[in-house]
Amino acid sequence: MRFSRSDWPGIVIALLAGPLLMLLFLAASETWGHKGTPLLGFMAGNLGLAAGLAALFSRFILKWDIPLSAILAILAVVGAVKWLQVSGNDGTKLATGVKWAGVVAFVVLNVAVLWQLVNNGLAPLLDRFDEWRARQAAER
After folding, report:
1. Which residues, 6+ apart, have CB-to-CB distance to 39 below 8 Å?
2. Which residue, 1, 29, 66, 122, shows the most beta carbons closer than 10 Å to its own?
3. CA–CA distance from 78 to each of 70, 98, 120, 130 (Å)?
4. CA–CA gap between residue 75 and residue 72 (Å, rounded)
5. Are residues 84 and 90 in contact, defined by beta-carbon separation less than 8 angstroms?
6. Any idea what DSSP says for residue 130?
7. Residue 54: which residues within 8 A CB-CB, separation 6 or more?
8. How far apart are CA 105 and CA 7, in angstroms?
9. Are 50 and 98 in a shared domain?
10. Is the pTM above the cut of 0.70?
11. What is the pLDDT of residue 1?
């Protein structure tokens, strides 16, 4: 099997997404020295599965402008929230607005990816299945 240009985003996601998500989980929940329970193993498995599925389905994402913009917006929101927490302004209306902006960016990311998965992956598959059924019916 030869790799094509459309496989590179999936390869990058498969290599980097799992470890970076695990690092984000460890930093967000401050579980660096967690021992004695299977929490880290379960989280690593779940995050690895999510990263693997993202890598698998990235082949069907043909336009990366909206997903990458949403990812950059989410990263900017994470930085802004962290800065607001460090500066002591976590309970303000600005902090709430920034957090809502992160939620909106996450929804935009999910909708953009799912829309492309349906249009570029599922719809052509269903069209080929319908063509196959029509050929089968014509042969009878």
Report:
1. 31
2. 66
3. 12, 9, 31, 45
4. 5
5. yes
6. H
7. 13, 17
8. 25
9. no
10. yes
11. 59
Residue identified by tokens 């607001």 is 84
Q: Looking at the structure, do residues 81 and 139 belong to the same domain, yes or no?
A: yes
Q: Give the tens place of pLDDT for each residue, 9-25.
A: 888 888 888 888 888 88
Claim to verify: residue 101 and residue 137 sit in the same structural domain: yes
Q: Are residues 93 and 54 in the same domain?
A: no
Tokens of 28: 């967000």
Domains of the chain: total: 2
Q: Verify that 41 and 21 share a domain, yes or no.
A: yes
Residues 45 and 83 in one domain: no
Point out the domain boundary residue: 60, 82, 109. 60
- The amino acid occupying position 82 is K
Q: Six-digit token pair at 129?
A: 């299945």
Q: What is the DSSP secondary-structure string of 12-71?
A: HHHHHHHHHHHHHHHHHHT-TT--SSTHHHHHHHHHHHHHHHHHHHGGG----HHHHHHH
97-115 b/e (C-beta count within 10 Å ≥ 16 → b) = ebeebbeebeebbeebbee
Domain that holds residue 68: 63-140
